Amino acid sequence: MSEQSRSGAEKFAEQYERIRAEIAKEMIGQQEVVEHLLMAVIAGGNVLLEGVPGLGKTHLVRVLGKVLNLPFSRIQFTPDLMPADITGTNILVRTEEGNTFRFQEGPLFSSIVLADEINRATPKTQAALLEAMQEHAVTVAGETRKLPEPYFVLATQNPVEQEGTYPLPEAQLDRFLFKVLVPFPTLEELSAIVDLTVKDGGAEAQQVIGAEELLAMRAAARSVPVASGVQEYALRLVLATHPENADAPEVTKKYLRFGASPRAAQALLSVSRVRALAKGRFNVAFEDIRAAAPACLRHRIALNFEAISDGKDGETLLQEIISSVSEK
Amino acid sequence: MRGGNELFAGLRPVKRRIRRNRFLQGTAWGLAAGAGAALIVRIIALFTPMAGKWLWAVLPVAGFVLLGAAGNALRPVKDLTAAETADSCGLKERTVTALEQAGSETEICALQREDACRALRELDTRRIRPESVKKQLLTALGCGLLAVTLLVIPNPRDREAEARQALRKTLKEGTEEIARAAQEDEERLSPEKRSELRRLTEELKRELLDSRDETDVLVALDRAEQRLEQMQTRTAGDAEAAADAAGSEGTAGEGARDGETADGTGTTADGKTAQESADSSIKAGKLSTQKALTALKSAVNPSEARKGSQATASGTRGDGQGEGQNGQGTAAAGGGSGNKAATGAGEGSTNLEGTAGGEKDSGHTKGSRDPKYKEAEYETIYDPERVEASVRDEMTNQNRLGNEESLQVETGPGKGSLGGSVPWNEVFREYEETETRSAERENLTTKERQWVNDPGLSECPGLPPVPY
Q1: How many CA atoms lie within 13 A of A317 on its CB side?
Q2: Could you tell me which residues come within 8 angstroms of residue B247 by beta carbon, excluding any fewer than 6 positions away?
Q3: What is the mean predicted confidence (pLDDT) over A29-45?
Q4: Considering only CB atoms, which chain A residues are within 8 Å of B111?
Q5: Which of A6, A228, A287 sits opposite B100 (nearest CB)?
Q6: pTM for the full predicted model
């Protein structure tokens, strides 16, 4: 075993902890959000954050960029935003040789992209983001341009003020690894936030790793072995969200319109691998799958009319489904 | 693969622990099953006699416990089972993953295997607990208590089983004794009689082995006795004939005999001597086989044997015995202990002092009668078991004095015949006796019982007098 790769797997937990600790210097609370974000970045996925304004979502992404030493860009989505506004466009430039077209990169050309209030943009603009998220490339005027690696899109949604918005279609929702719910801070956290804001000289997060090390961590996470029983458990969890499945629990058959796609199974396993390494283990356990399941599945299932009319909460239903699936 | 070997070595303590837990679980299951089986056996024993009740109680428990404990503990423990069991103690699927990746040599798999081995080394196998066996133990306790209760409470079937066992033992000893006696007797008999005796004893042995209860045994013994007596009679008859012939030959050829060689003399003399001694021994009723039969009968049912011996001792009367009997039946019905013999296989009814039964032509042999019993009113009981077509009727009389034990006294001949109908007054007594026994079994009043016993003597309003 080469020293480098051995070190990568063995140092993973230590690096992970350092990154988390560094982010915590500037982020008060939101530990679960930070963990999900980190796991998604290492796993190579995108995250949809849902929370009311003012919870520090933008600040979080900025700090993440600082700690990982990755360029960061923010896009404020509005209804009049066009795809070219985010992907970039060819502009006419006067040069010594004459006028020529030059491609002006849009804000998507960054390692970490914060797409603020994505549900405000038109579906056309949302679709432009879709290609970037999935392919890590944009196509402008017939020319495909690769986006830098590592590439990570963090989109946000406001759960209130849904008027005049364009809810993300299931196809686009499915491309997010996680949907993370950002909770309102507690009293203590609020107090700390306020103190941090008014005080000068607060701690600043520093760079911990760079792009190459992040990619090494990603490679190490991908090589973590998964026992067949654990993998089967993850797949059974995904299948349990499908109402047409005969073995699905009663609550699924009664309240869900459709279930998670195979991307959910991929997301579950890739995130579980990262979590296992972060916990100092070199194998995926049942608890890793259970911990990753809510964030991986909540945006991939749809409630039916009966659930809405019965006032059922999607989170509660999801917890019931996860509890009903046994490990063996 | 060093890591793989270390992994399997790390699983060994886990496998030992699993075997131990299986042993305990198997024991609990065996206890429950054994107690249940013991209870079922005890319930069956309430309806069917079953010897060795304690053995039947302990054997199922021991058997099932052994089967359960050994069978469960000796089942091979798979590596995967051991790995899953170890992981359930907080190892977080390390062992199972390492086991599945045992053949992989990638760096991460090697790291993972090392991690799993380290976790196995640090694992305290005492954390691997057996599944709860509370239900099994409660079942065992419940069934066990019930079974013990059924064991302790008196059960008539147990007594029956013990009686059968005792009977079997008695029969075994008796048949051995009969075989020994028969072997002794064979030496004194002619080859023809020898084979007949052998056949008799073999048949008796078979019948005794097939017998289910005391009655079957007594019937078999009585039948054997009859056949033995018949054999004795024929042997005696042949001996007398041979003696007569020898006597006449002796007179005619006496002189010749004197001049004969020792061989001729010895042969004739020895043959005559042997025949005579056989005659005498047979006549005297000294066949050991018969004694052995009587001894066995006595061992099986002492009261029956005593009746038989007493009947034999009291002997028979001659033709004149008929007086005071047969038709004079005002005697009390033969209730009590004598009744069984009266309607049974006719034990004791030979009354011939050990001689062959069935006085065909030579009339009754007069036996002796216990002098304390006076010639009084006798009841005549018709005993069809004892009668054969070629034999004169044999009637047994029964005299009952108060509550004393009855005796059997043989009457004289000519009391009736099987060829035609039997006079009412000859069979009435038997019916009366049967009725008496029935009356005793039923809950009749004293007066009613007296009327049944002796309608002429008792007063029972509403019941008609018996017209005889």
Answers
A1: 30
A2: none
A3: 91
A4: 1, 6, 9-10, 282
A5: A228
A6: 0.63
- pLDDT, residue B283, reads 53
Residue pair A48/A299 in contact (Cβ under 8 Å)? The answer is yes
String of DSSP letters for A244-310:
T-TTS-HHHHHHEEE---HHHHHHHHHHHHHHHHHTT-SS--HHHHHHHHHHHHTTT-EE-HHHHHT
Percent of chain A at pLDDT above 90? 52
Tokens of B44: 């069956």
ipTM of the complex: 0.85
Q: CB B97 to CB A227 under 8 A? A: yes
Number of other CB atoms surrounding residue B385 within 10 Å: 15
Shortest CA distance from A280: residue in chain B: B115
User: Per residue, what are the HEC states of B241-269?
Assistant: HHHHHHHHHHHHCHHHHHHCCHHHHHHHH
Q: What are phi and psi of B311, to 5 degrees?
A: -60, -40
Which residue, chain included where needed, has tokens 């302990």?
B58
Closest CB from B92, B109, B110 relative to A281: B92
pLDDT digits 0-9 by tens, B393-422? 444 444 444 444 444 444 444 444 444 566
| Sequence-ordered alpha helix ranges (H) in B260-403 | 262-283, 288-300, 302-314, 338-343
Of A9, A223, A287, the CB nearest to B92: A287
Pairing of strands A178-181, A47-50: parallel
**Cα A192 to Cα A294: distance, rounded to the nearest angstrom:** 28
Give B96's contacts in chain A (Cβ within 8 Å): 227, 229
Residue pair A326/A285 in contact (Cβ under 8 Å)? The answer is no
State the DSSP code for B316: B
Closest CA to B333 of B395, B401, B383, B385: B401
B344 pLDDT band, cuts 50/70/90, is: very low
Q: Which residues of B touch A2 (CB under 8 A)?
A: 107
Kindly list the residues from chain A whose CB atom is less than 8 angstroms away from the CB atom of residue B93: 227, 229-230, 283-286
Q: Are B95 and A227 in contact (CB under 8 A)?
A: no
Q: From the CA of B9, how many Å to the nearest CA of chain A?
A: 20
Non-local CB neighbours of B287 within 8 Å, separated by 6+ positions: B181, B185, B228, B232, B281
Length of chain B: 468
| φ and ψ of A91, to 5 deg | -120, 155
Closest CA to A60 of A148, A151, A156: A156
In Å, how far from its chain's centre is CA B439?
30
Tell me: pLDDT of B193 over 50: yes
Residues of A in contact with B115 (CB under 8 A): 281-283
Residue recorded with tokens 């019916």: B431
Cα–Cα dist A214/A202, whole Å: 27
- As beta bridge partners, residue B151 has none
CA–CA dist B328, A72 (Å, integer): 139
By DSSP bridging, strand A88-94 and strand B407-410 are unpaired
Q: How many Å lie between the alpha carbon of A149 and the closest alpha carbon of chain B?
A: 24
Strand partners, B380: B397
